[in-house]
């Protein structure tokens, strides 16, 4: 069975620079005060039936993330993406995967971008923020899982940034 786990080794030589290819996107800290907007974008970002059934469930999932139900949130490595005053995406990073005890280093539990703001560099900027922060913190690796609803563009981005398939547990 193929692995759905990707890992980026964070040796000090890994490029941690943030590509500012798009002046349309601003990166800001991930904040609980933005839960309602995060829930809307989270719900809109996945094909129906993949992540959550409605915006209410999305809000509960985001609240659970801030409460630590999926691991202790790394607020330094997590971030939100904005186009002007509109939240358009987020990356949520926890200290360790609660599902994959064998992994060393932080784990991306969510990366999502509004369909109306794709292909303008938001996903790349969010990932580069997480990578740069984890490199600066001396973390050994950054991992994530992908699944149904992961676009081919997202997979290309992961591979372009150096994530490689990692054997599952």
UniProtKB/TrEMBL annotation:
<dbReference type="Pfam" id="PF00583">
    <property type="entry name" value="Acetyltransf_1"/>
</dbReference>
<dbReference type="GO" id="GO:0016747">
    <property type="term" value="F:acyltransferase activity, transferring groups other than amino-acyl groups"/>
</dbReference>
<dbReference type="InterPro" id="IPR000182">
    <property type="entry name" value="GNAT_dom"/>
</dbReference>
<dbReference type="InterPro" id="IPR016181">
    <property type="entry name" value="Acyl_CoA_acyltransferase"/>
</dbReference>
<feature type="domain" description="N-acetyltransferase">
    <location>
        <begin position="25"/>
        <end position="169"/>
    </location>
</feature>
<keyword id="KW-0808">Transferase</keyword>
<protein>
    <submittedName>
        <fullName>GNAT family N-acetyltransferase</fullName>
    </submittedName>
</protein>
